[in-house]
Every structure is written in C-alpha cells, then in structure tokens.
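RECORD TYPE: inverse folding
INPUT: structure tokens
STRUCTURE:
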C-alpha cells in the first residue's frame, strides 16, 4: 500500500454557530512541510492540529486552510460610543471657529471615525472550538488519504507493469549471455591462433588471456543483483509506511546494474534490451517522485 504525495480534500462543518470550511492540498516534496492557515483567534490551536497531521502524513508540501463564515446567530449590533462622538463634535466646532469655517462635521464622517461605532465580537468557547476543529481536521485528513491512496494504488499498478517488463528482459539476457560469451571466446581463440601462427605465443599464455577476457564478459552477478532488486521492489510496494525515498535509491542501483550489462555484453540485441530496461527504470523513477 502506498500513498501519493499529491491530493486534495474539502470538509465543511459548523462550530459555535459559524460555518467552517477546511481544505487540504499537497504537492511533492523531499520531506514533510506543513503549512497551516487559520483564523487569527484560532492560531493557538495550530500545534495540536499539526501533530494530528504529522501522524498520518510522512512526506509532501501540505497546505491546510481553515476558513469560517459568521451566521445570523452570531451577528452582533453595533455599539455607539456617545462620549467619543461628542468629543469629536466639540473638537470639530473648535476647529471651525479657529479656521472661521462654516463647514460642519458630516454624519458620514463622524460614523467612520475611530471608536464611534464598534461591533463587539462574542467570546468564543475555545475548548469547544478545539474539540470540534480537531474532529473536523481528522475527518478531512481521512478524505485526503482516500484520494492519495487511490492515486498511489494506480501508481503501484503502473510500476508493477514495469517490473514485469524488467523481469522479462532480464530472463532474455540471461539466456543470451552464455551464447555471447561462447561466441566471443571462439572469436578470441581464432584471432589469437592467427597471431600465434605468425609470431609464436605459448599455449598457456593464450589460455590465460582467453580466460581473462571471458571473465570480463561474465554478467552473472549483475543479473542476480537485478533479480534481487526487482524482488525487493515488489516487497516494498506491498509494505506499509513511507517507501518513496527507499524506492528511489533502489532504482539508482538497478540503473547501475543495467549500465554494467550494456558495457559488458556488446551485442546489438542486448543493447536494445538494456535501452528498454533503462526506459522502464526511468518511468518508475518518475512515478516514485509522487509516492510518499
């Protein structure tokens, strides 16, 4: 089971008469980078919400946005500060007299002045908000993980296809390698025999050179390691937890083995197979970038 690092989920709830909307989205990232955007009066709850998210997300750049909208039940009437309004009026009259002006202070201007009209926000029960918000965040994270799991499952299916292709190509090269080695040995012996006929070389020396060249073409270890890497990849794909980083390292090892195969077995057919293997590994590496 694997989760994709990209996803989106939205959840709506009501807290203390206020409609609340939580949205969570994520993109690829090497590590876990959590970003919370909360209403100012709820910022104190961020550390606990962050711990809840950390418990279910391992990697990715994650954005959690909480917005709330006031309903009619929490709308408070404005309060008029009569004393402050009178102070502004008296100050305006003195200024008019000082400047010998007939222009008076308008009602629109007076209302807009600081402190004349205020709306007192009702006190929020933070313990209630904490309980409801925590519950809502857990709900949206569950929806978020459903989306990520669905995408991750599709990625695993694609990777399994590429692993099957790699297995087929490894088996193909495994059958072809002994033939290539035998052909190469025969060509090498004939070439050395031709040279020996002209200049004279000891038989023991010839046998040693043939053995050395044949050993250089031996790809048994590379094929064994490739098959082990494929099996290990399958084990990781079926395991729990974060697997993206480990899979990426494993792809690098597989790429190295394939490069060695191509260098050792200089054959047109094998070269085509190794190119196809490299393409399959590269596809998996691209897909792994999206896996948590």
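DESIGNED SEQUENCE:
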């Amino acid at each position: 089971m694997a989760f994709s690092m990209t996803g989106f989920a939205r959840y709506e709830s009501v807290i203390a008469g206020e409609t609340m909307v939580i949205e969570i989205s994520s993109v690829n990232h090497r590590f876990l980078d959590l970003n919370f955007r909360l209403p100012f009066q709820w910022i104190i709850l961020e550390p606990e919400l962050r711990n809840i998210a950390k418990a279910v997300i391992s990697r990715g750049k994650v954005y959690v946005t909480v917005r709330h909208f006031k309903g009619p039940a929490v709308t408070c009437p404005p309060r008029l500060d009569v004393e402050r309004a009178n102070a502004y009026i008296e100050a305006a009259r003195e200024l008019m007299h000082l400047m010998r002006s007939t222009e008076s202070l308008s009602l629109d201007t007076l209302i807009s002045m600081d402190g004349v009209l205020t709306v007192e926000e009702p006190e929020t029960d933070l313990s209630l908000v904490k309980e409801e918000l925590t519950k809502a965040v857990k709900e949206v994270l569950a929806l978020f993980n459903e989306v990520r799991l669905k995408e991750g499952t599709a990625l695993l299916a694609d990777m399994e296809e590429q692993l099957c292709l790699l297995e087929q190509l490894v088996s193909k090269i495994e059958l072809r390698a002994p033939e290539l080695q035998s052909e190469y040995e025969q060509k090498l012996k004939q070439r050395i025999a031709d040279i020996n006929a002209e200049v004279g070389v000891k038989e023991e020396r010839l046998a040693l050179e043939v053995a050395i060249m044949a050993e250089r073409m031996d790809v048994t270890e590379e094929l064994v390691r490739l098959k082990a890497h494929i099996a290990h990849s399958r084990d990781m794909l079926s395991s729990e937890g974060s697997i993206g980083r480990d899979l990426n390292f494993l792809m690098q090892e597989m790429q190295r083995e394939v490069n060695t195969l191509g260098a050792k077995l200089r054959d047109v057919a094998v070269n085509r197979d190794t190119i196809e293997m490299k393409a399959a590994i590269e596809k998996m590496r691209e897909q792994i970038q999206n896996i948590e």
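NOTES: The two ends are 11 Å apart (CA to CA).
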